[in-house]
Specification:
The protein has 18 helices and 13 strands. It is α/β, with parallel strands linked by helices and 541 residues long. The chain has 2 domains: 189 residues, no CATH class; 212 residues, no CATH class. The strands form 5 sheets. A 4-stranded mixed β-sheet has the order 4-12-8-13, with helices on one face. Strands 3-11-10 form a 3-stranded antiparallel β-sheet. Strands 1-2 form a two-stranded antiparallel ribbon. A hairpin with a 7-residue loop joins β10 and β11. It starts with 29 loop residues before the first helix and ends in an 8-residue tail after the last strand. About 9% of the residues have low confidence. This is TniQ protein.
């Protein structure tokens, strides 16, 4: 009868499992080492798990317990095998400093060449790593049965070999269970490449302490996050990819990381005072945006301002001025019309089936003065300009909290850049529909992470703040200038002639709720599917 070790045994500190020290290849996956330990010592998975877990949290079942080492007592593990702790830790992504959000969740992936050599690298769990760094071949699709085969290993038969029934991976080689069967040259190449990748991410974390929380999703499967291009742009701006990493998994959007202070209760003001200060800050941001980005595109703004309401459903995706459309959308979203909100509520309650055709907002989207300056109607406060009574500032929030007035310009500017980014470089070769929902709150929509900062250089007490990922405005402006210059050079139009012909032939009656502000079509064969671009999409409450 075999005796199972228990952490409460008196001889546990001196206990050892049967194992040949030095038989773990560099960065060999922890799950593969687990399988070999189980086969050599005739242990079931639950027995090994109880042996290595000294806390109740670690003993609980988890879907990623074969890929992550957060539950493993590496001190105990090292003592039982006689292996250095760092050798064992290199088998798990989280122990190497990578975020848990960066791992591939679609099963265990393999390099075909490494698989034939009996090796599997722990870094293959990084979702964005699409090719083996030393063999330069594509990794296979994730196999969910490999992990299941390890968990369900029969200790009595494991010594005869274990093969995954789906992908054919030889998890346990019956002829070489104890000694490592990995070629020394492969070990050298794998160790060199893996050290480069680990050092690269360590450098990213040194330059951005919140990298795991703020940018970690960029390392996961590419399609999981809608801001993955922005995150990769920030990662590569911090530290370039290592030479062994074949290429960036996606096209990147240049980005920058900024620091914001955390809103506190001390900043709470009465509603009237807060709104006055917030409107003042909003006007300041609006002037800055106009002077920095819109002024050089005033010709585009003039074309849009003189268009008919129906023309805005016939915009050409390749030629339309994205920065002006983002500016108009942003202003319409921030400067809320009370009548429009009430009208939307009626629609949602099915009191009315369509917008009143006599509504002023139906006749014209924007009403700029003849000078096309920054000061459009509804720009002053109640005492200096009676037009402010026509609109109210959209409710703003930051992670569910009412922001202090000094954070208002940061939130508003960030939302403008986000809208501009989605219209300028997002949804490439797709139809786009811009929709404003007046019933949503102004919540930050860009990636952010809470960080500890020094509240005062003279004080040792740490403060808290936000690290926020913003699109690079200079890069977006370069795209906008190139787009509009190309349109003028070829004599193009911002309006799709084919769609405009249909709109003129059939009266424009868009019954979508809420009404789309703009529709941008890509080419003539793009179909009828539209991707939505929505300012402040978070629902109130």
């Amino acid at each position: 009868m075999r005796r199972i070790l228990n952490a409460t045994d008196r001889d546990f500190p001196n206990a050892r499992l049967t194992w040949l020290a030095g038989s773990i290849a560099p960065f060999e996956s922890g799950w593969l080492v687990f399988a070999r330990v189980m086969a050599i010592n005739c242990l079931a998975w639950e027995e090994l798990r109880r042996l290595l877990s000294l806390s109740e949290v670690g003993r609980a079942r988890s879907a990623d317990d074969l890929l992550c080492g957060y539950w493993v007592s590496f001190h105990v593990y090292s003592s039982l095998l006689g292996e250095p702790r760092f050798v064992l830790q290199r088998g798990f992504l989280d122990a190497l400093g990578f975020p848990s959000s960066g791992k591939n969740t679609m099963g265990i992936r393999h390099c075909p060449e490494c698989m034939r050599a009996g090796y599997h690298c722990s870094l293959f769990a990084i979702g964005a790593l699409t090719h083996c760094p030393w063999h330069r071949v594509a990794l296979t699709r994730g196999c969910t049965r490999c992990a299941m085969a390890v968990r369900n290993m029969d200790p009595r038969n494991a010594s005869e070999g274990v093969v995954c029934p789906v992908c054919g991976t030889r998890i346990i080689d019956a002829t070489r269970r104890v000694t490592s069967r990995v070629d020394p040259e492969l070990c050298r190449e794998a160790e060199e490449s893996c050290k480069q990748i680990v050092a690269w991410w360590r450098a990213v974390r040194e330059r951005e302490p919140c990298a795991n929380d703020l940018l970690g999703d960029a390392l996961s499967a590419v399609a999981r996050d809608r801001h993955v291009r922005l995150k990769w742009g920030s990662v590569q701006a911090l530290v370039s990819l290592p030479r062994c990493w074949q290429s960036s998994p996606v096209e990147t959007t240049p980005a920058m990381i900024v620091r914001w202070p955390t809103p506190t209760d001390a900043c709470v003001l009465d509603d009237e005072t807060w709104e006055k200060l917030a409107i003042r800050h909003y006007r300041s941001v609006r002037r800055k945006i106009f002077r920095r980005f819109i002024r050089r595109h005033r010709r585009c703004l003039s074309i849009l301002a003189s268009a008919e309401r129906s023309d805005f459903s016939c915009l050409d995706r390749e030629y339309a001025c994205a920065v002006c459309i983002a500016y108009i959308t942003w202003r319409r979203a921030v400067e809320q019309d009370g009548a429009e909100i009430e009208r939307e509520l009626k629609l949602l309650r099915l009191i009315d089936s369509d917008y009143p055709r006599t509504a002023v907002s139906e006749a014209r989207l924007i009403d700029p003065p003849r000078s096309f300056s920054d000061h459009w109607p509804a720009s002053g406060d109640a005492h200096r300009d009676g037009s402010v009574e026509r609109w109210t500032l959209r409710p703003l929030s930051l992670r569910g909290m009412i922001p202090p007035p000094d954070l208002v310009p940061r939130l508003l500017y960030a939302e403008f850049l986000r809208l501009w980014m989605e219209l300028e470089v997002g949804h490439i070769e797709e139809n786009v529909k811009v929709v404003i929902n007046p019933l949503t709150s102004g919540e930050l929509q860009l990636p952010s992470a809470i960080t500890s900062t020094r509240a005062d250089q003279r004080s040792s007490a740490p403060g808290r703040g936000f690290s926020v990922l913003l699109p690079d405005a200079r890069s977006l402006l370069d795209h906008a200038n190139a787009r509009c210059s190309h349109r003028r050079s070829v004599g193009g139009s911002m309006f799709d002639a084919h769609a405009q012909f249909n709109a003129d032939t059939f009266p424009w009656q868009d019954r979508e709720i809420p009404h789309p502000l703009f529709k941008l079509r890509y080419g003539h064969g793009s179909g009828s599917r539209f991707e939505n671009v929505i300012p402040f999409p978070s629902m109130i409450g």
